[in-house]
Amino acid sequence: MSTVDATTAVGPTATTAPPRRRRRGNKGATRAFWLFAGPFLLGLVVFVYLPIIWSAVLSFTSAQNTVTSTNFIGFDNYVDLLKPGPFRSSLWTFTIFAAIIVPLTFALALLLAVLLNQVTIARAFFRSAFFLPTACSYVVASMVWKLSIFNGVRFGLANQVIGAFGFDNIAWLSSISPPWYWLVLATVRLWLQLGFYIILFLAGLQRISPELYEAAYVDGAKPGWQTFRFITVPQLRTTSVSVLLLLLIAAYQAFDEFYNLLGNSSLARPPLVYLYYTAQGNQDYGHGSAGAMILAILIIIVTLVQGRIFGFGRAEK
Amino acid sequence: MAQDAPVTSHTHRPHHRTPGSVLGAVARYGALVVATLLFLLPFYLMLRNALSAETDITSPDWTLFPKSLHWGNVKEVFDDPSVSFKQSLINSSVIALAQTAGTVLLASMCGYALARIPFRFSTPIFYAVLVTLMVPPAVTFVPSFIIVSRLGWVNSYQGIIVPVMFSGFTAFLFRQYFLNFPKELEEAGRIDGLGYLGVFFRIVVPNSMAFFAAISVITVIAAWNQFLWPLVVGQDPSKWTVQVSLSTLLTAQTINLHELFMAALLSIAPLVLVFVFLQRYLVQGVAETGIKG
């Protein structure tokens, strides 16, 4: 009833008012726009655009211990970084890490989401258990991993378990061959990020119409692999593309667990850890800024290429 | 009428249920239970070690349950002069709450303007906001630190809070949300003589509480857990957040394990509480960001 009243009340005013309101509204609307969006946009300019421009300028100077260097040296910083050395190996570290963590998270999140979607009892409980680590920080998780599970000595849980099968203790974080530290780094991140992607896939799965499965069943498709392959996977395309891109960006931003598990170790030092020690440790802002520029360019290229291949831009109308 | 759908699906099911599908169900639940135990194990280890005596943690004959529970570890963490854990908790709380309030207020207003207030340049401005999503915030830490140090904000709350408050992603999510907000409600408010501010704060916001809650919970968790930026800006121990304090303890030469685990447990306690009470919003929020992302 009240909705009917509202529409009849809106009707006449809406048809008679527009010309006058639009003319009066324009100046008011412009002012309102700046009132609403101005503070945010100002912040964006000062704390996102300005830093990037400043950094771009600084990347062409030899800025040691100063952030206002005027000593232009052209592309020297970039050349230094791209020569074989710690920055280039940090890009390798990122590549290895992404090659491990992206497919692993994708597959496990999809698997667990499909399982969750198929059960009816205690679904909310399982979902909560998988999602709970999302509330944990990388610092805390690194601590549990480093000091409790993958402690290199006897009281570590992993060594307790393999000890029960008669194996010797393993120094998980300092063993180079085989490089067990990747197991530690990958499992920390899996534990922390899986829940988030499970929820994304679950949301995607729940948007698939059940009629599609029924139609496939009528057409003789066996429930299980066939419906998964020919209905679930194609229907999840948009979600999958978002998940892949988010996973890649998240892997590329890796800092917390590497810093807390390995510190400034040359074993596995991703770009941000290297830049942190360059800019904060050595106060070398020239090289630090050049590194930030290279990373920014790389991520833009990856995003654009992925957009080209998978049509990422189409996901948001 | 509404009963039709469930009834048919129930009557259909038993026909398909072969011995194979019962086995399948057992396997599914088995896999989920194993996965759940693995997911909860680290929390249990944290709890176990936090309530253990130091010797129980490092004992060569390690047991799943500690031999005795040491609740005194809580007091020990707060009394330890080398950590100033209480100060870190205060810092983290101030930072997480202020950052969330700022982010949600500014991003929601900007998102509303982009979605609903007619303005000639709103499309290019929207693209300018979108571009910032392409550059991960972590990549800008060097340049942002330069700005913060020029402002003299190193070692200050505002230095930690303000630069990370302007989240293009959050503004984007709010814009997408407001695009679907029912126009009739706003019209009704305008007829009652409200301006843009009045319509926004007295009609749009109160009718969007679920979405605001979801975004707030996600922002609080992210703000509480952030590490690199507070590490870079809050260099003085008096400005350390919980994460920075824990990390300092973790990478120190000598550590009291039971104290460290108790500190970690205390640091996640507030978030687990938020999580338990607001999980529904959280999941909904994540699911919605996923759809749009």
From TrEMBL, chain A:
Keywords: Cell membrane, Membrane, Sugar transport, Transmembrane, Transmembrane helix, Transport. GO terms for cellular component: plasma membrane. Residues 1-18 have a biased composition (Low complexity). CDD domains: TM_PBP2 (cd06261). It is found in: Cell membrane. It is a multi-pass membrane protein. The chain crosses the membrane at residues 32-54, 91-116, 128-145, 180-203, 236-255, 290-311. Residues 91-306 form the ABC transmembrane type-1 domain. The lineage of its organism: Bacteria, Bacillati, Actinomycetota, Actinomycetes, Motilibacterales. GO terms for biological process: transmembrane transport. Residues 1-25 are annotated as: Disordered. This is Multiple sugar transport system permease protein. The keyword Transmembrane applies.
